[in-house]
């Protein structure tokens, strides 16, 4: 007896950590969780019985040391095990009931109390829930879950409730591995599961992660689903999306019945303060309707809280009715959005376009600060035009060169590939003051003296590298270029001069042309 | 640089150099009858066309712009300069229309596809410029020695 009590005291102190770590360590099967928790129920149970009288505690301890028995006792004694446990009327598992409950758990104390009351008011839990051990850890989680859903009792009573709770534990475990992995897992899940369940799982997940955050998973998932094809096509980075979405936070305390809707609304609010990297120009994802019974075009006419109006891009996951069979993208109208099929398709199209623009933004140098479709398009057009100009200029240059094409092509190829990778360190002086014009160059000025091939390898390497290094390191020099530079190319250089090695290679075009003319 | 970009670069370089050799070696057609400047001009046009064709072939025909480029090259070779501009999309004003004009086959695409093709086109153009620059450098430096 004394040993038990001392053990209990010891366990009390480290109760919180153990319990938390325990639950988080087993992301896998639920049964393992239960067993695990069952094994530790003893400790938690013990800790939760601080002020109970000794007899009661001893009884509980006895039973706690026999986890299966404990569970049987629970199920046998109550049909709605959870409810009765919470009530704790004279049941050995009345551990939970104690007012001075959870002394060792500071955070969940209030949560626990609310959780306790929850099942009381709502005794229609499915019988399957009885199988859950009424350990305080579980109650704490469920309470927290319900609490963060504003006491959304209906969620508990939802037919998917069991899966939710299971999802809760699995999510809780997986969450320790990072939100990113979870989002991926959810994304994979998303394709075959009803959206309501996913929304709940998502919300549970989010609740676990950061209690103050809103369930954004529905938004994230919906966007992922919508973008999945596009992403595959463009090979975009999904992780970026997920991490971005994970940043958003918001409280969720509004409507008891609209889980994701709440999350979405608050998510929109949260977005006001945070920038969405992925869909910057399109605006933040909006609110999502969550009602599981709502069919595909369901939506409410509440005013949306989105500020950035260029696009409301959150989309729900697939419908609960036909999740895995159809292949087109299921879009659900967001809260406050028109539910017309045209507008939905329009929104899909807009989001696709914004995604492509994002991808292009990474491609075109110097577009990171640019926001807005119009400016971005201008940049893209300029870049394409400059590249095409460079091609034309280089072809002109190649035409003037009188190459000795008789030497072997393979050697040329090898050298060519070598030049684009080599990093020589020699320095060649050159003065870029040749006007860039498309007028045919004077043959006499080209100074074309065919030379032996082997001797050229180092030279071209060094020449190229030198030019590149000079361009990258001293882009400021270009401002001192004489006016003989063609304005166009000058602008091009200044525009793309400091973008990096890749651009330096492009910039060697105009500069090397001057080189050509300089040499006698 | 990713593996696909390297492969593209190698493929393009090979084709381009082959075309260059073909263009430059038979000089009898160009040098004798025309002025030196015209020779260079004409040759530069041929080199440019060869560069674009080489890149289109190297990039593969699963891209709409490569197909459009190659079909344009084929039609131009047969001296049929029919204007395929604005075939599908009405002459779109503003930036989108400009972009359609720049990207081969752009007038037939809608916006989403246009942006996607533009992205791939930009990547290939960058490779093309890089390789042509290297070749030009090599030739110019070798000849200037």
TrEMBL record, chain A:
Residues 1-27, 204-257, 270-325, 495-520 are annotated as: Disordered. It comes from the Eukaryota. Keywords: Nucleus, Transcription, Transcription regulation. Residues 337-387 form the BHLH domain. Signal peptide: none annotated. GO terms for molecular function: DNA-binding transcription factor activity; protein dimerization activity. Residues 301-321, 496-507 have a biased composition (Polar residues). Its main location: nucleus. Residues 1-18, 204-241 have a biased composition (Basic and acidic residues). It is found in: Nucleus. Pfam families: HLH. GO terms for cellular component: nucleus. Residues 242-255 have a biased composition (Acidic residues). PANTHER family: STEROL REGULATORY ELEMENT-BINDING PROTEIN, TRANSCRIPTION FACTOR BHLH49. This is BHLH domain-containing protein. The lineage of its organism: Eukaryota, Viridiplantae, Streptophyta, Embryophyta, Tracheophyta.
UniProtKB/TrEMBL annotation, chain B:
Residues 72-103 are annotated as: Disordered. Residues 74-89 have a biased composition (Basic residues). GO terms for biological process: regulation of DNA-templated transcription. Keywords: Nucleus, Transcription, Transcription regulation. Residues 76-125 form the BHLH domain. Its main location: nucleus. PROSITE patterns: BHLH. GO terms for molecular function: protein dimerization activity. It is found in: Nucleus. Coiled coil: none annotated. GO terms for cellular component: nucleus. It comes from the Eukaryota. This is BHLH domain-containing protein.
């Amino acid at each position: 007896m004394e040993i038990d009590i001392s053990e209990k005291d010891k366990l009390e102190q480290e109760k919180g950590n153990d319990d938390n770590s325990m639950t988080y360590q087993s992301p896998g099967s639920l049964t393992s969780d239960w067993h695990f928790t069952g094994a530790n129920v003893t400790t938690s149970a013990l800790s939760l019985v601080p002020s109970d009288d000794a007899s009661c505690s001893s009884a509980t301890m006895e039973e706690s040391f026999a986890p299966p028995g404990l569970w049987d006792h629970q199920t046998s004694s109550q049909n709605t095990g959870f409810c009765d446990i919470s009530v704790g009327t004279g049941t050995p598992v009345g551990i939970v009931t104690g007012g001075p409950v959870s002394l060792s758990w500071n955070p969940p104390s209030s949560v626990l109390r609310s959780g306790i009351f929850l099942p009381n008011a709502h005794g229609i839990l499915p019988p399957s829930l009885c199988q859950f051990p009424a350990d305080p850890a579980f109650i704490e989680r469920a309470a927290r879950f319900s609490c963060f859903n504003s006491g959304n009792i209906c969620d508990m009573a939802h037919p998917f409730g069991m899966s939710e709770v299971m999802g809760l534990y699995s999510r809780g475990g997986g969450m320790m591995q990072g939100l990113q992995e979870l989002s991926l897992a959810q994304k994979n899940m998303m394709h075959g599961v009803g959206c309501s369940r996913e929304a709940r799982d998502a919300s549970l997940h989010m609740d676990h992660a950061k209690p103050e955050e809103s369930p954004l998973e529905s938004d994230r998932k919906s966007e992922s689903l919508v973008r999945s094809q596009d992403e595959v096509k463009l090979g975009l980075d999904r992780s970026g999306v997920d991490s971005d979405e994970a940043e958003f936070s918001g409280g969720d305390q509004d409507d008891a019945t609209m889980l994701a809707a709440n999350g979405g609304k608050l998510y929109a609010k949260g977005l006001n303060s945070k920038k969405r990297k992925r869909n910057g120009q399109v605006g933040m994802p909006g609110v999502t309707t969550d009602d599981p019974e709502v069919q595909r075009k369901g939506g409410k006419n509440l005013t949306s809280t989105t500020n950035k109006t260029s696009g409301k891009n959150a989309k729900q996951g697939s419908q609960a009715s036909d999740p895995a069979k159809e292949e087109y993208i299921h879009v659900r109208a967001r809260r406050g959005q028109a539910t017309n099929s045209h507008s939905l398709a329009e929104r899909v199209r807009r989001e696709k376009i914004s995604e492509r623009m994002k991808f292009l933004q990474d491609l075109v140098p110097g577009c990171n600060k640019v926001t807005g479709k119009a400016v971005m398009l201008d940049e893209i057009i300029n870049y394409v035009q400059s590249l095409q100009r460079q091609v034309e200029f280089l072809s002109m240059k190649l035409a003037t060169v009188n190459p000795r094409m008789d030497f072997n092509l393979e050697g040329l190829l090898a050298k060519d590939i070598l030049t684009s990778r080599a990093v020589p360190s020699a320095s060649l002086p050159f003065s870029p003051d040749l006007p860039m014009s498309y007028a045919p160059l004077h043959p006499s000025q080209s100074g074309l003296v065919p030379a032996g091939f082997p001797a050229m390898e180092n030279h071209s390497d060094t020449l190229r590298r030198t030019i590149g290094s000079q361009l990258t390191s001293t882009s400021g020099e270009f401002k001192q270029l004489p006016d003989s530079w063609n304005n166009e190319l000058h602008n091009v250089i200044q525009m793309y001069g400091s973008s990096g090695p890749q651009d330096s290679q492009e910039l060697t075009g105009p500069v090397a042309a001057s080189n050509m003319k300089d040499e006698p | 640089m990713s593996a696909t970009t390297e492969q593209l670069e190698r493929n393009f370089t090979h084709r381009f150099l082959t075309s260059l050799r073909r263009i430059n070696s038979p000089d009898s057609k160009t040098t004798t009858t025309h002025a030196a400047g015209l020779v260079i001009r004409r040759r530069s046009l041929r080199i440019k066309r060869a560069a674009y064709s080489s890149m289109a072939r190297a990039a593969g025909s699963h891209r709409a712009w490569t197909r459009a480029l190659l079909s344009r090259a084929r039609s131009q070779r047969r001296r049929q300069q029919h204007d395929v501009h604005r075939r599908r999309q009405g002459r779109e004003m503003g930036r989108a229309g400009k972009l359609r004009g720049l990207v081969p086959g752009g007038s037939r695409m809608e916006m989403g596809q246009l942006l996607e093709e533009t992205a791939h086109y930009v990547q290939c153009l960058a490779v093309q410029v890089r390789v042509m620059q290297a070749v030009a450098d090599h030739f110019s430096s070798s000849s200037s020695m």
